[in-house]
Design goal:
The protein is an alpha/beta fold and 459 residues long. It folds into 4 domains: 120 residues, 3-Layer(aba) Sandwich (Rossmann fold); 93 residues, Regulator of K+ conductance, C-terminal domain (Alpha-Beta Plaits, 2-Layer Sandwich), CATH 3.30.70; 102 residues, NAD(P)-binding Rossmann-like Domain (Rossmann fold); 83 residues, Regulator of K+ conductance, C-terminal domain (Alpha-Beta Plaits), CATH 3.30.70. The chain is built from 14 helices and 23 strands. The longest helix has 14 residues. The two termini are 29 Å apart.
């Protein structure tokens, strides 16, 4: 494919690196000669010196014949303009990276729809959602960034005395937007039907949106998180706001440490359910006074990689159970495990995962395998000529071997019912027997894509 990337910073460079390595023809635009020289010296990609917001430069870069344009400069307004211009000049699909919540969310105005942009991506948001997922449900099965992290899947055994034991699926009163994906009993795995009965010792796979996941777990006797978990966050950038919102529940007690007094006040207003402290948590006196050795997880979210790494390593040496660091630069990746950091996340890698999803959304791809390889989760876009378009799931016998567990339509995601109507352009998560991807692709009138999953973490 022909791909034009606007901006050669962290996200732009890494996008070019991954896409060029995958065999795509990549052109990188930037007006910083130093950044362009780094691309020229290390990547198999063409470069162009100029402003991404100038139509002349975009035309020279070949945007009119581009399969994808990625606008990834460090300025939201430039990215929105470049992506919109790219679409107008003929690019098949366009993606814009944004930082500001007002651009990313559609609460006031839908910038993507108005400007003709196929996808807005916010790396900080995606990374925050990934961190939140790992804290809410450490055993959750990875299904990439489907519906902006709004869907989770987990596999667990059903204990004795669980409310679901002895009941059929039709008798269970599961929370909204919840689906039982599979039941494993005596080494036999099945897709559940209305008359399927839950027994003690069954291993079940459950899917739900993040708002209902804890309640869904309780129906099967699996506690969402046990006692309240204590979280300490160092730093107050936008990612901190995303993370605190994603963790907002009675399961978490959150303290945010921000050294800038003005920013600390802003955070206190935005996040009234958290405790915001104007201090450095790695200061020995603050660490002792706030009893930080007792927290369950320390998350370093400052904009300084070195500070995040050193801070996380320091609190681990002081007895904190788990430390998570956010880092941008890949040269630090090999250090993290050596200094005791449990997990790390990279916003730039999260952005590339989102971009790869855009590239592959028109095909069908196996996301992950369930139940020891017996079942697969497929992610696919439903094309206009698919035989299931305009029909409710109840009226699609062709899908008898598969279960549609989630449907993404535009910005909306649902866990479907039998009455859900599939529309052209919908993206679906489908569970079915291993090795049936070609048959499913034929029904959805799409093509099978090879798996490509750039990691969302750097460790």
């Amino acid at each position: 494919m022909n791909i034009v990337i606007c901006g050669a910073g962290h996200v732009g460079y890494h996008s070019a690196e991954v896409l060029a390595a995958a065999g795509h023809r990549v052109t990188v635009i930037d007006n910083d000669p130093t950044r362009l020289r780094a691309v020229q010296d290390t990547l198999d990609a063409a470069t162009l010196d100029g402003s991404c917001s100038e139509p002349r430069i975009l035309i020279e870069a070949g945007v009119g014949k581009a399969d994808l344009l990625v606008a990834a400069t460090n300025r939201d307004e430039v990215n929105l303009l470049a992506a919109s211009l790219g679409k107008g000049l003929g690019a098949d699909r366009v993606v814009a990276r944004v930082h500001h919540r007002a651009f990313f969310e559609n609460s006031v105005f839908n910038y993507a729809e108005h400007l003709g942009i196929d996808r807005l991506i916010c790396p900080e948001y995606v990374a925050a959602q990934a961190i939140a997922r790992s804290l809410r449900n450490p055993a959750a099965i990875a299904i990439e960034t489907f519906a902006r992290g709004g869907i989770e899947i987990q596999e667990f055994p059903v204990p004795a005395g669980a409310p679901a034991v002895g009941k059929s699926l039709s008798e269970l009163r599961l929370p909204p937007h919840t689906r039982l994906v599979a039941i494993s009993r005596d080494s036999f795995v099945s897709l559940p039907r209305a008359n399927s009965t839950i027994e003690e010792g069954d291993v079940v796979i459950l899917l739900s949106d993040k708002e209902n996941f804890d309640a869904a777990l309780e129906a099967f006797g699996a506690k969402g998180g046990g006692s309240r978990r204590r979280i300490a966050i160092m730093g107050g950038p936008a990612m901190t706001v995303w993370l605190c919102r994603a963790l907002r529940s009675r399961r978490f007690s959150i303290r945010v440490f921000e050294e800038d007094a003005e920013r600390a006040e802003e955070l206190a207003e935005k996040l009234p359910w958290t405790t915001v402290i104007n201090a450095d948590p790695t200061d020995e006196a603050v660490f002792v006074e706030e009893s930080l050795a007792q927290v369950d997880t320390f998350v370093a979210l400052t904009n300084d990689d070195e500070r995040n790494i050193l801070g996380s390593a320091w609190v681990k040496s002081k007895g904190v159970g788990q430390a998570i660091a956010v880092v941008q630069r890949p040269q630090y990746a090999h250090l993290l495990q050596h200094v005791g950091i449990d997990r790390s996340y990279s916003p730039r890698s999260s952005a590339v995962s989102e971009i790869m999803n855009v590239l592959e959304e028109r095909g069908l791809r196996r996301v992950t395998s369930l139940a020891e390889g017996v079942l697969d989760i497929f992610r696919a876009r439903v094309e206009p000529d698919s035989e299931i378009v305009g029909r409710s799931l109840r009226d699609i016998p062709e899908l008898g071997a598969w279960v549609v567990v989630a449907v993404e339509h535009g910005e909306d995601v649902t866990v479907p019912t039998a009455e859900t109507v599939i529309q052209a352009g919908d993206t679906v998560l489908v569970v079915g027997p291993n090795g049936t991807d070609k048959k499913l692709a034929k029904i959805l009138a799409t093509s099978v894509k090879r798996s490509a999953d750039p990691a969302s973490t750097v460790s």
